[in-house]
Structure formats: C-alpha cells, structure tokens
Amino acid sequence: MPIRKGEPWGEVGPLPAGAVIVRTDAEARAVVTDARRAGGPVPPLGLLGGDLCRTLGGTGNEAHLRSGEATVVRVDLGAVLVDGRLHWFVAHLVARQSWWRGRVIAAMNAQFLGAWDVAPRGHPNDGRLDVLDADLPLATRFQVRSRLASGTHVPHPDIEERHVMALQVDLSKATPIYLDGESVGTASTLSIRVEPDALVCIV
Questions:
Q1: What domains can you pick out in the chain, each with its CATH number?
Q2: Sign of the C-alpha dihedral computed for residues 11, 12, 13 and 15 taken in this order
Q3: Percent of the chain with pLDDT over 70
Q4: 3-state DSSP call for residue 23?
C-alpha cells in the first residue's frame, strides 16, 4: 500500500535472498523488464547508483547493502505504452526533441534526473507520478534550467504540474522517448500509469 502522510516508511534489514544489485536506473529497468516479459516476479533491487537510489538516500556502499543495516522500502513503478508497446521505468520518463526547443514532458517516480531536482515534492511510494509538461521560450528555459538543481523551478506559471495515477499524452508528432536515461525510440502517443508498491528496493 502506498505511503500516507505521517506514516513510517521502510525498515532496517539485510539484503534479501535473490536480490539483484544494480548501479544505474537503466540496469534496474532491465531487471524489471526481463522479469515482466518472462511473467515472473521482479526480484528485490539493491541500489548502488542512479536517480532512484539518490531519491531513497542511497550512498552507493555495497558493504552497507550486505551489512544487515540497509534500508528496505517498497516503491512504485512507472509503466507506459509507447505507441502501443508496454515498457516500464523505475525513475523517470522524458519525452523531448531537445532540452532547448519544443515541448518537454517528464514523468517522475524519482525526485532527481541527474543533477536536477525535477520533482522536489514527489515521493516514490505515494501511488502517483509527478508529471511536468512545458514548451517554453528559450530565455525562459535558461531561467528554469538555472533553478533545476535546487528544485526551485516550480511552481512556474508556464510549467504544468500534475500528480497522477494515470495519464494519456498526445505528442502531436513522433517524439524521442527516454526511460531511465535510455532511448526507447519515438512515439506520438503515450499512455502512462503508476504501479503502486511494485518494487522492493534496498539502499
């Protein structure tokens, strides 16, 4: 069950049996994809890097993961139909032609995208995705970019923010889609949803 405001989250424990240690969001997504395509359960993920790991307070210390003093939490998973083909993402989806021109959409399960604090009010286990949607003039993009590292780019009158369980997006034209930092091709429509409590992560 997704976390509720004021409730404790996670517990201290060892790396579970069968856990897979990953060092990037892309590696985590590959484990999820392989398990889902095979029709089996997703194994627990020991996170040593990536934006989801940072969001969860991970330090990248493998000895800590194996110490019995790691933090074990349940987190949500993003799912998306990219022109009808199902994919998953652990940290974020980005649809963009360029960072500097055209519409940019980010659906965030993690708080961070690289050095940027994109979803400062999000939580990876609240049963929702934080979606930011904007098509800004170039001068405004420079202003927004300068605030991304600190998370002070929102609220902004020209950035639409949504906190959603599911969302249908019409991109009007074929647009490159990036899941957890990796290109998965182009799409003109996206059907995005969250799968609450889908992952067990250890940091």
A1: 11-76 (no CATH), 78-196 (2.60.200.40)
A2: positive
A3: 96
A4: coil
